[in-house]
């Protein structure tokens, strides 16, 4: 048997040699020493080497050692260094048993389980390094032990303090921390148990680094998440959830997320910061919950991270004396997971019926995952605002501590002050039993923070004693979103089925679709024809109006009006001539109109001539009348003279005979004029008759062309026109 020493050395201040690490006895191996020149190692590399050491150990243990001891012996004993003078060992029963036996498999249902507690001692930060702070904590991954360094205890005569937890880590590797400390809790949640993960520790101890690792994510660079070396627990949990869903063959899931913060004892919705008056409620079914709280249904990890980033943008952060970007509020990122068996459609009796009520369906499992980043406890700070925030933070953390103590003290249902702070009230479900809980406690390595770190470790040891008994939450609940969506899908499927029962029905549907298309096409054509008709009607109306303006006698005649109507609507209804094309029809109408127009013009002319001659006739008649009066008076005068004894007879005088001749001539002229007027009247009458005949013949030829025209109406109209004795000239 030979001794294999793997010794990791690093010098954080580049001055002194610090730790001697894990030493194993590994048979048949001759590695004596792996020494690292201190000046070439930076802090980051230290963790790499530290992890490498673990990897080497694991490899050796698998390859060479049939049985590596589960817990390596204490460092001092192997190095044969004297044991510390005295030791306070926080190894509660549960804690010890838990650290030595693996946590129960997550698929065990309703088993009593201790809260899983993980410790992370972060590396010294720049300030601590610059100050040259001594690192006081030593961590043994295998022993799952964190304790004060022996050197330090000896030098400063301090009591040796050591704690044992489920997992202890140093460095920055969040992946291994997640794998060992959190993964089971997340997977339990996917199986229907409530789960809660929270980070606890003093300000600047690395809670946010372990939960979010915001320094590597910021809102605009979610994409970088995949390449980030230290994704926090929350993004890893999100990945774990979706990995689980991908792997799970038999279930389907629905996820919704919400994100809230407790700032100065006020609950705020980080996804909907404008929402006011968020309250904590409690009912038997849901336990303690916050409302109204915005919930977003999510279907990809990216979507979840986007929501987280959105919420982070609204979170209260501030610069403290210890942390440039300190979380000034507790945040709770909540994911509700609904799941149901993949082929579990609503039972037969509950199937959708179009007329029936909507019924409950298959059982849905509903679990809630809380991922919590607590604000850090802190000592007095210089800023007034920070001091107020700090007071609220410290008070709520104190209450959390008290609640945990009470839970571990009696476990018997005595009064536990959950209601003393919003934080403990919201965590009530998780802490009081029905949840699997992982707590990550973070501490600073520096001696400056020794007291705070010890408090954190004491808190961690108390939490470790809390026993929970989670059970799966199956609900037959229409309110479960998954169930609602399922029912809706069922309804839609049923509707689809009812319209698509058999092939015949399919064909029928096809036919009716074709018919519908044909109908639509026909309607389209009708519409087009209608448009042409309307255009023609408008044109006719327009022309008719022009005729009305130019020839009032045509428009004034009822027969003409009827004829005009018949031209447009020969059936009394608006009917298209099926034999004549629209263009032919239009042309005929135009020809007729122009023919009628020219006839009307002739009539107008004749009428004007007639009235002119009538006027001449009238004037001649007046002249004749005057002449006759003169003759009469002349005759009377002649007769009077002769009677009076003058004995004169003018009838034989030349003046009298001239006058008589003139009168006769004028009378002849009048007679001639009268004859002429009569002949003009005859011509007008004839023209009117011709005009009338032209109208009739036009209508009749149109009538002949309408083969499918209904009998009666049109002919009646023609008869009406024929019989109508309207007021024609003459
Ligand atoms: N394990 C780690 N490895 C490397 N750097 C770390 C680690 N933990 C914390 N840090 C760094 O330390 C600083 C403080 O960490 P963080 O903000 O996570 O502390 P916190 O406990 O959340 O503080 P607060 O309560 O004030 O919000 C950050 O710059 C962070 O990057």
TrEMBL record:
GO biological process, one term: microtubule-based movement
Bias-annotated ranges (Low complexity): 86-110
Superkingdom as given in the UniProt entry: Eukaryota
A GO CC annotation given for this chain: microtubule
Residues bound to ATP: 201-208
A Pfam family this chain is assigned to: Kinesin
GO molecular function annotations of the record: ATP binding; microtubule binding; microtubule motor activity
Keyword entries, A-Z: ATP-binding, Coiled coil, Microtubule, Motor protein, Nucleotide-binding
Polar residues composition bias: residue spans: 695-721
Disordered, as annotated region: 74-115, 635-659, 695-730
PROSITE patterns according to UniProt: KINESIN_MOTOR_1, KINESIN_MOTOR_2
Chain ranges of the Kinesin motor domain: 114-466
Annotated coiled-coil segments of the chain: 475-539
Similarity-based family: Belongs to the TRAFAC class myosin-kinesin ATPase superfamily. Kinesin family.
Protein name, as recorded: Kinesin-like protein
